[in-house]
Amino acid sequence: MSQSTAPTSTLPTFEQRKRARRRLLGGAVGTFVEWYDFLIYGLTVPVFAAQFFGDSNPTVALLSTFAIFGVGFLARPLGGIMFGYLGDRIGRIKVLAITILLMGVATGLIGFLPIYASVGMLAPLLLLVLRLIQGFSTGGEHSGALSFVVESAPQGRRGYWIAIVYSVSILPGVLLGFGLIGLRSWIGEDAYLEWGWRLPFFLGAILAVIGLWLRMRLRDPEEFTRAQEEEGVTNPLKAAITKEWRSLLVVLVILIPNLAGYYFLVTYMYSYAITTVGVDPNIALLSNTIASIVIMVGSLFGGKLADRIGRKPLMITGAIWMAVSAFPALHLLSSGTTAGVIFAQILVAVGVMFYVSGAVVTMLELFRTSSRYSAHGLSYGLGTAIFGGATPFVATALASSMGPIAPAIILVIAGALSLAVLIFTPETRDVSLSEGAVQFNAE
Q1: What is the predicted pLDDT for the residue at 6?
Q2: Which of 57, 61, 375, 395 is a plausible cystine mate for 240, CB 3.0–4.6 Å?
Q3: In this structure, is residue 11 part of a structural domain?
Q4: Do the Cβ atoms of 147 and 376 come closer than 8 Å?
Q5: Residue ranges of the Major facilitator superfamily (MFS) profile domain (predicted)?
Q6: What confidence category does residue 14 fall into, taking pLDDT thresholds of 50, 70 and 90?
Q7: Is residue 2 included in any domain, yes or no?
Q8: Could you tell me what percent of the chain has a pLDDT over 90?
C-alpha cells in the first residue's frame, strides 16, 4: 500500500495547543467513564453472585453473573451501529454527549437495585436490563471517542494520542483497585457486602455528568468536517460495509487478543482467584491493580514507539507474548500464593500492553474519516460481543470442566489468529486518514 503524509505545518501556537489538550481530554473522559462502568461490574462479580442469585451453587451463580456481564456486550453492536451512523451524519460531539449521559444513568441505577432476598428473580432481571443499556451506550461511546481523538491528533502523534486515551481507560482499574481495598478496610467486609458495593456505582453517575459538561464545550475535528464536505457520504454504514469490508474483517480479527487478553486478565483471573483458588479479596484486588498499572504506563511508551517504528512490530510482539505466557500464568495463579497471583497477572498484562499499543490506533486508521465512526462501531461492537463478553464465561466453563489451566487455550488461539491476519495487514503509521483506508480496500 502506498503511503502519503500530510504537509508539514508550522509550530502550533499556545492557543492551538490548549485547544488540542481540551479535545484530548474531551475524548478521554468518556472512555474513562465507559471502562469505569464495565470494570466496576467485573470487580463486583463476587458480590452480585452472592446477592443476586439466592442460594445457588457458587459456580452456577458465578456463571450466571458472567452471563449477564456478557449480555451487556451483545448490545454493543446495536449501539455501535446506531450511534456510529448518527456520529458520521450529524457529528461526533452531539452523539458523544448522548452516549456518556446514557452510561451514567445506567450505572447510577445499578447502585439502587434491590437484591434477591428482597425481590427474588426480579433482582437479576433488573441488573440484566441495566447492563443492556450500558452495553448499548458504550457501543457508541468507545468508537466515537477514539474517532474524535485520532481525527484531532497531530500528524505523527496519532499512536501516542490514542495511547493516552487507552491509558486513561485503564486508570479506573487502578483507582478502583486501591479504592475498593480502602473502602473494604474502612467500612468492613460485612458492610461492603451489604451496602458498600453500591457506592462506586453512584460515583460512576457523577463522573458521567462531569464528562457531559466537558464535552458540551467541544467542536467536531476539522478532519471530520472537511471529509463531510468533500465526500458527502449519505449512508456511512452502507459505505463501510460495501467499500471497506476488507478493513472490517481485519479489525474483527485484530480485536481478538485485545479483548480476550484484557477481559481474561481483569475479570476472569480476578474472580477465579477469589472464588476458586481462595485468595484474599484484597490480595486479588492488589494484583489486578498492579497489572492495570503495567498496561497503563507501558502503553504510553508503546504509543510513542508505535509512532516511531510502526504499529505492526508491537502487535506481533504482544500476540506472541500472550500465547507463550498463558499456561505459565495460570500455573502461577493456581498456586494461590501472593507472589504467584501477582506475577500471573503481570505476565498477561505485558502481552496486552504490547499488543494494544499498536492495535487500537491501527483499527481506526484502517477506516476512512467519512465512515470511521460507523465502521469502527460495527466491527468493534461485533468483536466485543463475540470475544469480550464471552471470555470470562468460556474461561470459567473450561476451568470447571477441564481443569484450572485449560482457559489458557483462549489466549493461545487469540494470539495465533491475530498473527495469521497481521501478515496481510498494512502498516498504517504514515498513511493519511482520508486516503490510507481507500487504498487498502481497493487492493
Answers
A1: 44
A2: 375
A3: no
A4: yes
A5: 23-429
A6: low
A7: no
A8: 39
Per the structure, the complete domain to which residue 298 belongs is given by 18-442
Could you tell me the pLDDT band of residue 108, with boundaries at 50, 70 and 90?
very high
- Does 6 map to a domain? no
Per residue in 295-322, pLDDT (tens digit) is: 999 999 999 999 999 999 999 999 999 9
- Per the structure, the count of domains in the chain is 1
The answer to whether position 190 is within a domain reads yes
Among the listed residues 114, 101, 284, 268, the one whose alpha carbon sits nearest the alpha carbon of residue 198:
114
C-alpha cell at 378: 460495527
Calculate mean pLDDT across residues 189-215. 89
Residue 32 class from Cβ within 10 Å (0-12 exposed, 13-18 middle, 19+ buried)?
buried
What's the CA gap between 30 and 147, in Å, rounded?
A: 12
Contact criterion met (CB below 8 Å) for 333 and 224: no
Predicted TM-score of the model (pTM):
0.82
Q: Which residues contact 88 (CB under 8 A, 6 or more apart)?
A: 233, 236, 237, 370, 371, 372, 373, 374
Q: What CATH number does residue 146 fall under? A: 1.20.1250.20
Contact between 424 and 250 under an 8 Å Cβ cutoff? The reply is yes
> Residue 183 burial (CB < 10 Å; 0-12/13-18/19+)?
middle
